[in-house]
Amino acid sequence: MTRQNNIVLIPARLASSRLPGKVLADIAGRPMIVHVADRAREADIGRVAVATDSIDVRDAVAEAGHEAVMTDAGHPSGSDRIHEALQALDPQGRVETVVNLQGDLPTIDPRTIRAALSLLETEEPDIGTLACIIRDAAEETDPNVTKVVGTPLSADRLRALYFTRATAPHGDGPLYHHIGLYAYRRDALSRFVALPPSVLERRESLEQLRALEAGMRIDVALVDTVPLGVDTPADLDRARRLLAR
Questions:
Q1: Is the pLDDT of residue 1 over 70?
Q2: What confidence tens digit (pLDDT) does each residue in 55-78 have?
Q3: CB–CB of 18/144 below 8 Å?
Q4: Where in the sequence is the domain holding 81, given as residue range(s)?
Q5: How many other β-carbons are positioned within 10 Å of the β-carbon of residue 16?
Q6: Which of 7, 60, 95, 233 has its CA 20 to 30 A from that of 186?
Q7: Which pTM value belongs to this model?
Q8: Residue 130 and residue 159 in one domain
Q9: How far is C-alpha 44 from the chain's CA centre?
Q10: What is the pLDDT of residue 85?
């Protein structure tokens, strides 16, 4: 898997229900989306581009020396947005693997980004994603924390069987906090966005269940920490403190 065959795409929608305009929020003198693009570049796995529906976001990204592409404002998900961006940026089909990195993870460790992509070095999985062992008991019953249920393949890798907002699986053993960063094979991404929303996806409000219900394989790399996602003013304050160091 070589750098020219990989791309990191960062969907960045300016409208946000919980924290409007957050991708342009100032953190240590730079917009949040620029920090995310910086982390993606530091991962050093391939081309990096921001996929957005906002001219302001595009201009901020370009001013900071990163690549950006305009996409339709009507996309229902980040997966649809990066799929459009991929067709625009690589119409020849040279890119083989696509990392979908959320635009609200300004402090993510570049090694975490690399971990998702590394799952596709073997032929079996269609999609790679991440999880971390839950150590806070409150997270175990929090429906806002998605859990992945999987069969162990090694000490740091699972094959996903299910994703849920419930506390699962039952019984003794670790629970895993799913981290919503994905690495797709190109044909898997195209297949995924062409599928209609599935029954369990609608019930759990978890898009990744669409892939499992369609028989696609998702492998999960276990990492040490959950990256800070900026969804609230308190999250933004925390990100500012971390990146001011």
A1: no
A2: 999 999 999 999 999 999 999 899
A3: no
A4: 1-106
A5: 15
A6: 60
A7: 0.95
A8: yes
A9: 17
A10: 97
